[in-house]
Specification:
- The complex is a heterotrimer.
- Chain A is mainly alpha-helical.
- Chain A is built from eleven helices and no strands.
- Chain A has a domain at 77-192: MetI-like fold (Orthogonal Bundle).
- In chain C, the strands form eight sheets. A seven-stranded mixed sheet of chain C has the order 9-10-11-2-12-22-13, with helices on one face. In chain C, strands 5-6-8-7 form a four-stranded antiparallel sheet, with helices on one face.
- In chain C, strand 9 and strand 10 (216-221) form a beta hairpin.
- The chains are: A mainly alpha, B mainly alpha, C alpha+beta.
- Chain A binds chain C through residues 38-40, 42-43, 45-46, 59-61, 128, 132-133, 215-217, 219-221, 231, 233-238, and chain C through 248-249, 267, 269, 273, 319-320, 322-324, 390-391, 395-396, 398-399, 401-403, 405-407, 409, 416-421, 424, 427.
- Chain C: Residues 32-44 have a biased composition (Low complexity).
């Protein structure tokens, strides 16, 4: 355990701390920000960051810090849900292609290609046009659009691992396919995915925010980070903190997850 | 023979992509909470008279069994019979044709800019030496992550506020045929993509710098410049090139936001406008066109890859190139 | 390996730089000057950037919304005008008389006037226009309602058009002053809807030259323009570039950087920021109705007047209006716009009183509170679904709705704000899936009360749309509105409308917010006026200023 910590290094340690803070904000936002994220105070609107109002206040006098903290669960939820859809689909496609017979590989390649041909926003707008607006459409669209990328990584890794000497040795020892999959293929294929998946969470938050920009995103008064970023954009020149603060949190989250993902991947291999 | 293969491959790919797209649209229309007829005509606010409703019912064969409807839909998409926009009362094909060039110009400019930015950043990061160099490389690595998660609508708004409104250097809006107006939208679109491509390119350069083929080339007495252009750069650009199809898709996604923000006409804005009024025929048409554009880009990329990578001049197998096991990047949306 | 790097870096930089240098002066389409002291000059093309949705048809007879009224003001003219005091003035019609029973109206047209295609502006043209509005194939909503009581137009002679009415309509002149009933060339209408939508032919100071969808409409000067008073004098401008620029921040930046001369729908903070600069602010609130939240009385919980009053008493929008709108508008306590001379206000009904609201809800049986603090009755939560059309409510207004959501929550209401696109919004209204809604509706004069609160307006039009979103069905109110519509006596009309407004306010059917906002910012141009009808700007006397 101590070895793992050391190998994480200083950047890894910082990243781990940031992620821990995020998790705390998800589980117990009241600890970090005891206030009510929806409490308005028109008289105290548009206060610049200062003592007690760390991130300033917004156009309705709500405390931005409180909103950011309480928005962590919905924001990360959006990112995680989209990424879960993406990785779930990718696991099926990637392993089918990587470990299955040749015809399956070719078939999956075609499916992956089609998914690539439908970019996130195009897919999201298609879903909104036929199903009506909402966060669900964007989460599903982001998930579907990220799946082919993950699938290609998994397929390539699965191929490499399946063709490696230790798998051949294990098979010679009479190990079952399931044992090999569990023991060798899964661990060795999944770690490379972690780094990109973590970055994907940050991107998913951003894409769902783009739907807020069009006016089809999160429901108010949700303090989903992307929606906050978009709402604050209109006051960019007069009240910079309304976009910079949630923007920094999105960036910090994405960066921390990425760094941590990479370090963990390195530690594990 | 290679050319024939390529053409057949492209056609097959196009057919498949269009088929799946049409299928997705078909079931999305029917699986949703909205009545397909209402969706086609734009909801209860569409002011469609009884005749228009009847006409649409006949045109889309909504009284027929689902199987017949499905085959009809396939036939319409396959023959590029995209129908008529209910909101603008003109053929969908005309709308797409008008919107298409502006978006292609924007996406192409942004793609080139993103490649250039990514390459510069990757070269600096890889080439950096000494403590200062390492610090610079570290900062660049950080910037790559930041760029990757920067929303287009925010970056665009900052550029408009600072460069257009503040400094007055460039126009805040963009119209086709006006090169100055293309600069800020292109930067807005290119930066997040460049952040992502930069990470790939850096990995590729680092790997290629120590790869056996560069070492052997150096041993054969090739000049460093030749080694770089003929081996290192070539190797590093392959994964990035392979992602062009995806990159264009990502740019088209971003174009939806950027065209709205800069008031530039184009496919993305057409798609948003159509979505907001529930003009489903236009949405379907735009989706099919985007999918076809992807096929074209992938075919061209394939061709380029063959030129750049001698190993690919043999017939390929499966999805992956032989060396993509480790260097294969993941494409996020 | 290192040497080529700077070379590539430099060439990439050069690429960017050359793209930049090509830009200087490239934005020459806007001729706006940054020098406020510049003097007016003839000619030039004005650039107008609108944030309203791009019309799908430039003929305001088709459908009939505000974006169409905005642009068609430049090329189509109505039969009659209306000045800022609400007085009807001659326009294409130089005079009119009404029969004793109010059922026959004679309009006299100026002689020798023509549309820009050469077709004469005669009684036959007026008849063709009314028939066009009433033709179901036209798909007119707004204009259709405006001429709803006209049973026939008779061509008495070339310059006399006689309107036969099915019932007296005191609001007829006001209805005909609107852009949605503007008169266009019958030959233009004959071309069919597709052609006419692309370029309607009128008598206005400008002519539609080209329409590039998503980008702009190019308007050129009508050299033969004849003003309402009969003098032939074309506009000073050579043309107008009418651009569609949906993002408010971009629009304001484009105005500041000299790309455009006029913008509409600016954000309140932009209006405040532009004070003391060379930007001119025009505040032209829309006539007719005030901007309000309508409470759906057709179903629970707002079928109970006590619950409606509790909602309104706990909403407390005033502090929010003050900060969000930064002083560019004032709270309203009337169903009608402050610019309507017949508007009736009662501020006492809208005072914030949380205790009173709680008492009312207790009395109405909403006594329990669930785990989230919302009131319940028989296990049913006190939920208010509030669909918000993001095309129709500006950002500041959406923020205000969030504040009302937070305020009414104190009393135990769960307000569910649902941002949605226009078609989903229509669907929600059509399916009665709302308890509160804020819908824009503009009509000149107090007759808008009949459109919004008469029980007839709860019956959907063929298009599926109904304007009485509060679903008010009050026979006493209907009688007052019918009587006002039939009365020829101004004083009597005003009194009837005051009584009707009192019923609307005291029934707590609506929460008035403020006037329907209509602001314009101009720069490098002078002489921009707004019409006294639906407050659309006209550029007939506008001139660019150049140093």
């Amino acid at each position: 355990m101590r070895g793992t910590a050391r190998r994480l290094g200083v950047p890894g340690g910082v990243a781990a701390a940031v992620v821990a803070l995020m998790l705390l904000a998800v589980v117990a936002p009241g600890v970090l920000a005891p206030g009510d994220p929806t409490a308005i105070d028109p008289a105290g609107a548009m206060q610049a960051p200062g003592w007690g109002v760390w991130f300033g206040t917004d156009e309705s006098g709500r405390d931005v810090w409180t909103r950011v903290v309480h928005g962590a669960s919905s924001s990360l939820g959006v990112g995680l849900a989209a990424t879960a859809i993406g990785t779930g689909l990718a696991l099926v496609l990637g392993f089918a292609a990587g470990l299955g017979p040749r015809w399956l590989d070719v078939g999956v390649a075609r499916v992956v290609e089609v998914l690539y041909a439908l970019p996130t926003m195009v897919l999201a707008l298609l879903l909104v046009a036929v199903q009506g607006p909402g966060v669900a459409a964007s989460v599903l669209a982001v998930g579907l659009a990220t799946a082919p990328g993950y699938a290609r990584i998994l397929r390539a890794r699965a191929r490499t691992v399946a063709g490696s000497g230790y798998v051949a040795a294990a098979r010679l020892e009479g190990r079952s396919g399931a044992w090999v999959l569990r023991r060798h293929v899964l661990p060795n294929s999944l770690w490379p995915l972690v780094a990109v998946v973590t970055l994907g969470i940050g991107q998913a938050v951003v894409w769902v925010a783009a739907l807020s920009f069009i006016g089809l995103g999160a429901k108010p008064p949700s303090s989903e980070w992307g929606a906050m970023l978009n709402a604050g954009r209109l006051y960019l020149t007069t009240s910079w903190w309304l976009t910079v603060c949630p923007g920094l949190v999105i960036t910090a989250t994405a960066a921390a997850l990425t760094v941590l993902g990479r370090r963990l991947g390195r530690v594990a291999s | 023979m290679t050319v024939l293969r390529l053409v057949l491959g492209a056609l097959g790919r196009a057919a498949l992509v269009v088929w799946v797209t049409a299928t997705v649209v078909f079931f999305a229309l029917r699986g949703g909470g909205r009545d397909p007829l209402e969706a086609i005509l734009g909801g209860p606010g569409s002011q469609a008279g009884p005749e228009a409703v009847e006409a649409a019912r006949t045109e889309y064969g909504l009284d027929n069994p689902v199987v017949v409807q499905y085959l009809d839909q396939l036939r319409r998409v396959a023959t590029l019979d995209l129908g008529t926009s209910f909101s603008r009362r003109v053929p969908v094909a005309d709308l797409l044709r008008d919107a298409f060039p502006s978006t292609v110009v924007l996406a192409a400019t942004s793609l080139v800019l993103a490649w250039a930015l990514a390459l510069v950043v990757a070269l600096v990061a890889v080439g950096a030496r000494g403590p200062v160099g390492r610090a610079v490389a570290g900062v660049l690595r950080g910037l790559e992550v930041v760029a990757t998660v920067t929303p287009h609508f925010w970056l665009g708004a900052v550029l408009i506020a600072v460069v257009a409104a503040g400094l007055g250097w460039l126009p805040a809006t963009s119209t086709p045929g006006q090169p100055a107006g293309l600069v800020l939208p292109s930067i807005t679109l290119a930066v997040p993509l460049a952040g992502f491509l930069g990470q790939l390119m850096r990995d590729g350069l680092e790997e290629a710098g120590t790869a056996p083929f560069t070492t052997s080339a150096r041993a054969r007495g090739a000049s460093p410049a030749r080694v770089f252009t003929h081996h290192t750069l070539r190797h590093a650009s392959l994964p990035v090139l392979a992602l062009s199809g995806w990159a264009v898709g990502s740019l088209l996604s971003g174009a939806v936001v950027v065209e709205l923000l800069f008031g530039r006409p184009g496919l993305g804005r057409l798609l948003v406008d159509a979505t907001l009024v529930g003009d489903v025929p236009v949405v379907i048409g735009a989706v099919v066109l985007v999918a076809l554009l992807y096929v074209v880009v992938v075919t061209v990329t394939d061709l380029l890859e063959r030129v750049l990578d001698p190993r690919l001049r043999r017939p390929r197998a499966g999805v992956a190139t032989p060396d993509d096991a480790s260097a294969e990047p993941v494409a996020l949306s | 390996m290192r040497r080529p790097a700077p070379v590539i870096a430099l060439s990439a930089l050069a690429l960017v730089l050359s793209a930049c240098s090509g830009s200087t002066g490239g934005d020459g389409e806007g001729s706006g000057s940054s020098d406020p002291s510049g003097s007016a000059q003839a000619g030039g093309t004005l650039v107008y950037a609108t944030g309203d949705a791009e019309p799908t048809c430039l003929d305001p007879h088709v459908g009939g919304n505000y974006p169409q009224a905005l642009i068609s003001t430049q090329y189509l003219e109505p039969l009659v005008g209306r000045d800022a005091d609400g007085t009807i003035t001659p326009w294409l019609a130089t005079g009119w008389t009404v029969s004793e029973d109010g059922l026959t109206w004679d309009f006299t047209l100026a002689e020798g006037r023509t549309f820009t295609d050469g077709t004469p502006v005669d009684a036959a043209a007026v008849k063709a226009n009314v028939e066009h509005l009433q033709d179901p194939d036209t798909g007119s909503s707004t204009g259709y309602l405006a001429v709803g009581k006209v049973s026939e137009v008779e061509v008495v002679d070339a310059t006399t058009a006689r309107f036969h009415l099915s019932a007296p309509d005191a609001a007829l002149l006001e209805s005909l002053s609107q852009q949605w009933t503007a008169i266009q060339s019958p030959a233009g209408i004959e071309r069919g809807q597709d052609a006419n939508c692309a370029a309607p032919i009128g008598t206005g100071p400008f002519v539609v030259e080209a329409w590039t969808p998503q980008q702009q409409v190019d308007l050129v000067r009508n050299e033969d323009y004849v003003r309402p008073d009969g003098t032939a004098e074309p506009a000073a401008l050579e043309g107008i570039t009418w651009r569609f620029l949906p993002d408010a921040a971009t629009r304001y930046a484009a105005l500041g950087s000299g790309q455009v001369n006029v913008i509409d729908n600016p954000q309140p903070d932009s209006i405040v920021a532009s004070e003391g600069t060379d930007i001119t602010h025009i505040d032209a609130p829309r006539p007719g109705s005030s901007n309000r939240i309508e409470l759906n009385t057709a179903q629970a919980p707002f079928d109970d007047v006590a619950v409606r009053e509790a909602f309104i008493r706990s909403a407390n929008p005033e502090p929010g209006i003050e900060t969000l709108f930064a002083g560019v508008t004032a709270p309203s306590y009337s169903p009608l716009a402050s610019v309507e001379p017949t508007a009736y206000s009662d501020e006492s009904l809208f005072g914030y009183d949380l205790d009173e609201a709680e008492a009312l809800l207790d009395g109405a049986g909403w006594t329990e509170r669930d785990a989230d603090g919302y009131r319940t009755r028989d296990g049913e939560r006190l939920t208010v679904r509030f669909p918000v059309s993001t095309n129709q409510s500006v950002a500041a207004e959406q923020s205000l709705f969030e504040q009302i959501q937070a305020n009414t929550r104190q009393a135990g209401f769960e307000v569910v704000l649902e941002p949605m696109d226009l078609s989903a919004w229509y669907t929600a209204l059509g399916e009665n899936a709302y308890e509160a809604v804020s819908a824009p509706y503009t009509k000149v004069g107090p007759d808008v009360l009949r459109v919004l609160y008469h029980s007839d307006s709860t019956v959907p039009a063929p298009s599926g749309y109904f304007a009485n979103h509060a679903q008010v069905k009050d026979p006493a109110l209907d009688a007052l509105l019918d009587a006002a519509s039939a009365s020829q006596d101004e004083a009597e009309r005003a009194d009837l409308y005051a009584q009707a407004q009192a019923i609307v306010l005291e029934g707590f059917y609506i929460l008035p917010l403020y006037d329907q906002q209509n602001h314009f910012l101009t720069r490098g141009v002078e002489g921009v006026e707004t019409l006294g009808t639906v407050s659309t700007p006209t550029f007939v006397d506008a001139a660019l200023t150049q140093s």
